[in-house]
Amino acid sequence: xxxxxxxxxxxxxxxxxxxxxxxxxxxxxxxxxxxxxxxxxxxxxxxxxxxxxxxxxxxxxxxxxxxxxxxxxxxxxxxxxxxxxxxxxxxxxxxxxxxxxxxxxxxxxxxxxxxxxxxxxxxxxxxxxxxxxxxxxxxxxxxxxxxxxxxxxxxxxxxxxxxx
Length: 164
Known about the structure:
single chain; alpha/beta; four-stranded parallel beta sheet; two-stranded antiparallel sheet; 3 helices; 6 strands; 19% helix; globular
């Protein structure tokens, strides 16, 4: 039981209709995610990301720590042909997503491995050709490592609707 879990984690593991104020924490299987690889197609990840968390007690105490330190799974990068091989996240969205997947403090599947598939925006946008290339690279990576049925892809993007 993770007693200091944020509310979004608490509600995942609790009975329906439970009041948030009554939830003791995030109940999870410590093996959750073990042997599973999550591909995160996003803006990258900042593995050195520092987090500040307030405990919301009076007086408020602020705790600072490195988000991915002591992570149970691993992090590796999968670069798309033609993309810059930059290990970082200038925007922060990919770091947030990876944190919700497997970080020790905020992750749902704390033992999962993460593969970061960073797509670099062009003029603030990511062309569909890059998105398709990312999915193709992931499919090839899964096949080459015999990870069928052991991999999940997280993909979150928004954009203008286009007609074809």
